[in-house]
């Protein structure tokens, strides 16, 4: 696929939501990316004169944070604010889910890169998943472990449609404290996770549409299904690889 | 040994959550509950100024002939009130747990507006597991 302009999914403001651009960000595109500008780093370093230069987060060893954990409470509050912030800027549930998906997508691209680097960089024969089912297994276990600290609960293949697969999480950590009000029935905040999955699949070369749906059971009230709808090209390639 | 009801009063004196757990309480309308909560808020404010020795956090237990009312005041001014029978000894412990559930299921829920009535299924079900089925 060739894109004439930057991939629309990489921007929070994708083309389909042009109508709400004005209220979202009056300034130019630079505000979308939170890269610190170089001068501000230098001024803070110069003025404070802390004991020794503070280590820049970009210079830190990536493996240092490999087993580090984040407070679940702190993350729950942050994610809650993310949802509230997004909710203020959308016109409906679909739009809200799409934006959460986009935010997750930006994390997914980084998760894949970091995960592959950590797993394969030291290996003598680094490999990459090229078949669909192993790739889904990697998402089900490794991606989930890297992001949520536990594997997902199941992978299922759709009976009706050959191009649909489902990853099921019985108790998604990001939804543990969220109760969706009745008037927003169809909303699933796991669209964020769906975005991560979509980015990882894209990065591995399996373009797909990924959506999240809550499928509660009496035992698991926040059970969530991540639905993966693969593009035709992926299935065609799978057929060729089978032979 | 019985727990009759649970109230949560926000820092402005508004009743944001009310639930009965056992028969025997007089049935009141929601307006009457609001008035009672507002009155308790006022009484609590008075009791916090009555201490002869330094500052006080206000009334903690109010006992009647047949029931006991335990108040847990948080640092942010939210009050958790539990109506129990006189012999109930675990009221403080339960209120502490209710506060924990409130922090998890209400404050971390993006669809809750602070200081507004609590409508969260997660909170309801966790309170049910803690105290028992309500009405």
From TrEMBL, chain A:
Residues 1-56 are annotated as: Disordered. Gene3D superfamilies: Trafficking protein particle complex subunit 3. Belongs to the TRAPP small subunits family. BET3 subfamily. This is Trafficking protein particle complex subunit. Keywords: Endoplasmic reticulum, ER-Golgi transport, Golgi apparatus, Transport. It comes from Macrolepiota fuliginosa MF-IS2. The lineage of its organism: Eukaryota, Fungi, Dikarya, Basidiomycota, Agaricomycotina. The keyword Endoplasmic reticulum applies. It holds the Pfam family TRAPP. It comes from the Eukaryota. The keyword Hydrolase does not apply. Part of the multisubunit TRAPP (transport protein particle) complex. Residues 11-30 have a biased composition (Low complexity). InterPro entries: NO_sig/Golgi_transp_ligand-bd (IPR024096), TRAPP-I_su5 (IPR016696), TRAPP_component (IPR007194). It is found in: Endoplasmic reticulum; Golgi apparatus, cis-Golgi network.
Automatic annotation (TrEMBL), chain B:
It is found in: Endoplasmic reticulum; Golgi apparatus, cis-Golgi network; Golgi apparatus. Keywords: Endoplasmic reticulum, ER-Golgi transport, Golgi apparatus, Transport. Coiled coil: none annotated. Its main location: endoplasmic reticulum. Pfam families: Sybindin (PF04099). The keyword Transcription does not apply. The keyword Cell membrane does not apply. It comes from the Eukaryota. One of its GO terms (cellular component) is Golgi apparatus. GO terms for biological process: endoplasmic reticulum to Golgi vesicle-mediated transport. Signal peptide: none annotated. Part of the multisubunit transport protein particle (TRAPP) complex. Belongs to the TRAPP small subunits family. TRAPPC4 subfamily. This is Trafficking protein particle complex subunit. It comes from Macrolepiota fuliginosa MF-IS2.
């Amino acid at each position: 696929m060739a894109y004439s302009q930057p991939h629309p999914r990489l921007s929070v403001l994708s083309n389909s939501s042009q109508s709400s651009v004005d209220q979202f960000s009056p300034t130019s595109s630079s505000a979308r990316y939170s890269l610190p500008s170089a001068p501000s780093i230098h001024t803070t370093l110069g003025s404070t004169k802390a004991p020794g230069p503070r280590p820049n987060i970009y210079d830190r060893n990536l493996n240092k944070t490999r087993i580090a954990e984040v407070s679940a409470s702190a993350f729950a509050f942050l994610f809650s604010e993310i949802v509230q912030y997004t909710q203020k800027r959308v016109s409906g549930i679909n739009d809200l889910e799409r934006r959460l998906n986009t935010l997750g997508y930006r994390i997914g691209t980084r998760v894949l890169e970091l995960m592959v680097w950590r797993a394969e960089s030291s290996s003598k024969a680094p490999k990459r998943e090229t078949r669909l089912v192993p790739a889904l297994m990697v998402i089900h276990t490794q991606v989930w472990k890297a992001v949520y600290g536990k594997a997902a609960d199941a992978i299922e293949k759709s009976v009706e449609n050959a191009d649909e697969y489902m990853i099921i999480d019985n108790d998604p950590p990001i939804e543990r404290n969220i109760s969706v009000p009745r008037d927003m029935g169809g909303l699933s905040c796991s669209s964020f996770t769906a975005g991560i999955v979509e980015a990882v699949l894209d990065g591995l070369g399996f373009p797909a549409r990924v959506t999240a749906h809550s499928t509660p059971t009496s035992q698991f009230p926040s059970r969530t299904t991540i639905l993966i709808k693969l593009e035709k090209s992926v299935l065609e390639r799978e057929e060729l690889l089978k032979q | 040994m019985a727990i009759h009801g649970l109230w949560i009063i926000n820092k402005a004196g508004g009743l944001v959550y009310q639930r009965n757990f056992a028969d025997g309480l007089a049935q009141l309308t929601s307006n009457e509950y609001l008035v009672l909560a507002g009155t308790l808020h006022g009484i609590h404010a008075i009791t916090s100024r009555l201490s002869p020795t330094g500052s006080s956090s206000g009334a903690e237990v109010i006992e009647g002939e047949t029931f006991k009312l335990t108040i847990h005041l948080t640092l942010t001014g939210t009050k958790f009130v539990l109506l129990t029978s006189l012999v109930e000894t675990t009221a403080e412990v339960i209120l502490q747990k209710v506060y924990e559930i409130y922090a998890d299921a209400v404050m971390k829920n993006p669809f809750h507006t602070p200081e507004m009535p609590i409508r969260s299924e997660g909170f309801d079900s966790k309170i049910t597991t803690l105290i028992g089925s309500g009405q």
